[in-house]
Amino acid sequence: MYLRTKKVAVITGATRGIGNAVALQLAKDGYAIVGCGTMDPARAEGHMKEIADTSPEFLYVQADVSREEDRRNLIDRTLERFGRIDVLVNNAGVGSLVRTNILDVTEESLDRVFGINLKGYLFLGQLAAKQMIKQVEAGDPAPKPVIINMSSISAYTLSVMRGEYCMSKAAIAMLTKLLAFALADYGINVYEIRPGNILSDMTLPVKEHFDKLIADGLHPLRRWGTGEDCAKAVSAICKGYLPYTTGSAIDVDGGFHMKWID
After folding, report:
1. Edge-to-edge strands of the sheet including 87-90?
2. Torsion sign (Cα): 172, 12, 44, 253
């Protein structure tokens, strides 16, 4: 297939929430979009319609990023269709199976959370990075590729009833730095984005609780964040607006990361 744009972005967890907003923003920015999710294609079609209508080219790949064969299939199908990868947004993630004290976390829940939230990021990042290195070493004139890992304020903030989730996000922070160091000589920058309280279908069950906390000053910007807030940060990175940064964590959290005393 003739590729009308030389920019290809792969976004995991793209069927809803932050990933969906990121995919739409990068489609508006002119990227060919490879959206990945666990939904079957028929169900995903409705979730991805606006992206498919916006992107110069679009491909949906059903994949569970915790599975090696699915990760390889995602990369293989991307290269088969478009021949390149310019952006990888590791966004797919899950929470704890059951909210419980760290003393009662089960191996099943830990394995599930780390399999998707960490193992998926690491090994998909490896596959994408090796393709990106090939492009750089071939003298590709396009802007250097980037990798963006979607993390959370839970990377440094205790959520005491979902410890395995917090540990996975803290691990993503270190993974970002390790990848950034490994890829620096190739000019491939790596970033971590730390969303705060983002309104989505995943946070709707606790919306009423957090509505009051936010109104009472949980963070200085007294509103919920949106997927679009995160997507704009991704867009800025992909446009090359932060060229002298790598391994950096970008807080998209309404100022939650600031510590203050009245």
Report:
1. 58-62, 32-37, 8-12, 87-90, 146-150, 189-195, 248-252
2. positive
The predicted-structure confidence for 212-260, as pLDDT tens digits, reads as follows 898 988 999 999 999 999 999 999 999 999 999 999 999 999 999 997 7
Q: Following CA atoms 156, 159, 164, 166 in sequence, which dihedral angle do they give, to the nearest 10 degrees?
A: -20
**pLDDT computed for residue 207 by the predictor:** 83
Q: Are 90 and 125 in contact (CB under 8 A)?
A: yes
The SS3 of residue 89 is strand
Pairing of strands 189-195, 8-12: unpaired
* pLDDT score of 200: 82
Domain spans in the chain, listed from the N-terminal domain onward: 8-251
60 is catalytic: no
Angle subtended by helix axes 107-114 and 163-183, to nearest 10: 30
CATH number of 8-251: 3.40.50.720
Is the full-model pTM beyond 0.90? yes
Q: Please give the pLDDT value at position 15.
A: 97
- The helix (run of H) or strand (run of E) holding residue 10 is strand 8-12
Bridge partners, 190 (sequence order): 147
pLDDT at position 188 over 70: yes
Annotated active-site residue in 165, 186, 191, 241: 165
